[in-house]
Amino acid sequence: MSELQQLHAHTIKLGLSTDTDTMGQIIKFCSASKNGDLEYALKVFDGIPNPDVFLYNILMKGFWRMASRPRDAIVLYLRMLHDAITPNSFTFPCVIRACCVDSAVREGRQVHAQVLKFGFGEDVVSSNNLIHMYVNFLSLEEARRVFDKMPSRSVVSCTTMITGYARSGFVDEALEVFESIPEKSSVLWNSMVAAFVQTGHFHGAFALFERMLDEKVVLDKFIAATVLSACAGSGALGLGKWIHFYIQSNEIELDPKLASAIIDMYCKCGCLEKALEIFNGLPSKGLSAWNSMIGGLAVHGKGDAAVKLFMEMEKEKVAPDHITFLNVLTACAHSGLIEEANNYFEHMMDFYGIKPRIEHFGCMVDLFGRAGMINEAMEIIEGMPMTPDASVLGALLGACRVHGKVELGERIGMEAIDLDPSNSGRYVLLANLYASAGKWQDVAEVRKLMNDREVEKIPGFSAIELDGNISKFVAGDRNHPESELIYAKVDAVLESIRKVGYEPDINEVLHDLSGEDIETPLCYHSEKLAIGFGLLKSKPGETIRIYKNLRICRDCHCAAKLISEVFSREIIMRDRSRFHHFRSGECSCKDSW
DNA sequence: ATAGGGTTAG
Predict the structure, then answer these.
(1) Nearest 5°: CA angle at A76, between A75 and A79?
(2) Where do the DYW domain residues begin and end (predicted)?
(3) Of A13, A101, A445, A588, which sits with the fewest C-beta atoms within 10 Å of its C-beta?
(4) Within 7 A of a protein CB, which nucleotides of strand B?
(5) What band does A32 get if pLDDT is binned at 50, 70 and 90?
(6) CATH number of A357-457
(7) A225: CB within 7 A of chain B nucleic strand
(8) DSSP labels for A109-172?
(9) What residue spans define the domains of chain A?
(10) Portion of chain A with pLDDT greater than 70, in percent
(11) If you average pLDDT over residues A277-292, what whole number do you get?
(12) Which A residues between 531 and 570 have a beta carbon under 7 A from any strand B atom?
């Protein structure tokens, strides 16, 4: 910047201080390069009597890109029109983006009209930015209308559309757009893999990734991060390790996001030690790496370690963000650290000035709910500055179910269901709550409501990976080719733990939280089939890792503890909300989940 | 003439 100022002084001496082209270069440097200075650019701009369209464009770019002042970019555009300067094809991408990041919906639509008025309706870049803007406004129909009207769509148009569909959960529409363009770039491939991941279609993500490798598309750091998140989401450790190895052997740069994706993958696939090893080995730990590691310790029930790591982070002067606190609070919730959570909740607001979001309140509700402090949980909900959403109420409903608060749970459950009628979990929770109180009539009514509304039940499954192959089991499943053997093993295993006191809890069958089919005998729940298969196929002493998409049921939890003791096996099971490490007859969750 | 668009973690 200092060299630039010297140069600027020089140009003034030469009498060029009002020369548009020369000043254009100076403003371009100030408002478009990394170490520029927007204020300086503004001063220079103000000294120019008749700025041309290039000057306006480049300064608008500076406003939204360098200074995050999108509003000023929009104002500058208005001034430009007022000065009767005709916009060109470079003008609109800037203004549209400014409307987009400023969430200026009304202005955005007006700018769209002007794009057409000035004759840039067929400009590819302007159209792509319009699509991006409407996607950001969550107005997929308008985005699609722009997309459909384009005389020639680029691969960028498709990528933007796919990303938009994915964010709103429309994976089929995304796939249709993906297949519609023959020349696929690696960015496009990545956006489609990410679309599968974001919508929870991990299988689709892996299948597309394989197809991508077949077509010899280069596996870059973006795709690596996306596939790692798919591995994290589905517990696919084998593939996750493969990607990690690939990154190392191809010397792909470990940027903060990629490092965080690797750590998160190891955490979510049950390898906490490996995650710590990578975390500790990072030459410089970005905020994202700290966040992932704290979050990992949280879901593994290591609240103390998570809190300690957070303190270390403060010592290293890394500024935490709202995710850091979400993870710290989650850690406290899963370890029953009530006082610490209260302190950090305050600390976040008072010391760091971070306003709690709805997720933070949800976390506090969960914390008190798990600890059976229902009144405190209620107080959190009543004190929230925003309307509680279904997930906050769902957390309280879960607590009511566990602690037998039938009346409150009934009221909260109804509210949560009304707010999000398509979420099957809340119906199941409410039905379980009624069942535990013996209110069978109400159980039947909830079931009927669910049927009438055609709410899709998520089938519970347990998955186990052995030698890189993933086997999936649902309750009472006989589809596995070795199913005879597996069932015999399960029977034998249950017999041997019965000798040390296992008794199937018949009463719990009707109101467990696992979402397994109620008709299936407890002894063939998917968790037990997966454990049986694991014992059958692995060597003595090897750790058994299981992934369950819903929450583990109470009876399976009890059985797993005993199995870990009788068979001297460590069993690491990830369920919907956390990890359970079964070892020597005990579980790391200390029976509160 | 100069300049513009899409992808990844928590």
Answers:
(1) 90
(2) 501-593
(3) A13
(4) 1-10
(5) confident
(6) 1.25.40.10
(7) yes
(8) HHHHHHHHHTT-TT-HHHHHHHHHHHHHTT-HHHHHHHHHH-SS--HHHHHHHHHHHHHTT-HH
(9) 357-457, 462-587
(10) 97
(11) 95
(12) none
